[in-house]
Amino acid sequence: MSNVLFFGRENQIEQKEKVKNKTLREKVDMPIVATLSLLLLLGTLMIFSASYPYASLHYGDGAYYIKRQVIFLAIGIIVMIFTSNIPVEIYKKTSPIVYSVCLFLLVAVLFGGFSEGIAKRWLGIPGTPLSFQPSELMKLGIILMLAWYIDKQKEKKRTIVSEIILPGVVLFSACGLVLLEKHLSGTLIIAFIGICVLFVAGSSIKKMSLIYGITALVGGTIFLLTNSYAMKRIESFLNPNADILSDKWQTTQGLYAIGSGGFFGVGFLNSRQKYSYVSEPQNDFIFTIWCEEMGFLGAIVVIMLFVLLLWRGYKISINAPDAFSSLVGFGITAQIGIQVLLNMLVVTDLIPNTGISLPFFSYGGSSLVILLAEMGILLSVSRISKLKGG
Known about the structure:
69% of the residues lie in helices and 2% in strands.
């Protein structure tokens, strides 16, 4: 299991490529396009339903959020089409540059960024009223950089330095800068993405657990001791008697929304919890409003769509012709899966509330555009992937 993909079968794949080059696909994978399209449609409809009471109250326009989301969705689709038409070899050549730019932006946000709440994690785009989170871009940057590094190392002798230490420096440099933004959820997601990529590439679980585990423990302890708000969230999660009118308000109201939906739901647009009960229901807790309006059956439909998307991403990645393409595909697929899983664990109160958005559902312009750019890269990989049985 330690050599899951590449180092044992890379040469065999390359030899087969010389013989079966004519089998490479030139079109993107349509099943993943269809699944993604359906998720985007349902997500957009739910943003409208979940957001209009909050938007009416705070902006005097019930369509405030949906109008902005549709614009970003259109931009994101254009970006996805563009990135899907860039050859994977270009991404391979530019990976260190993308990662370096992401590091620079993470440093820049510490000095010139602004906050929306506690965490300073946003950078303005000069000359426009728009802003974005560099941590969102780093999710892609860490995938590309680790895939590039592992691809470069595949013919070299594996040592603890090359296998664990150096990629660990790449990973924890990104995590450390994001953690300085007080962005715990972003740090966790980037860390999980990196570990998934390294695991699939064959890095030792025991070595990663020991070295990365100690690093994460020290960094996490320092963070919690110096950030009372994060410690308070953990304490309220662990405390069964926590005040549901303050510390656990959002989580409790989200659970009420899920429970109110029953099997078939109360119907589209008919949620009651979105009326100032679930805080900003168009964001991280949008899945609770979906469950209230569409019920258990609707929840299963969305979960199965995500499972289908992940399965297709896995299939594209496992049949890619080289280590870099495969790892990039796995990394993007893993990112979607990690965010979906963590979001659903948060809203069902199975882990502390860390503010994690639900891909393609939660409101957010920059995150949606970057996610769709990543899906375009996955589709680019699908063009060269030998998908058995289509």
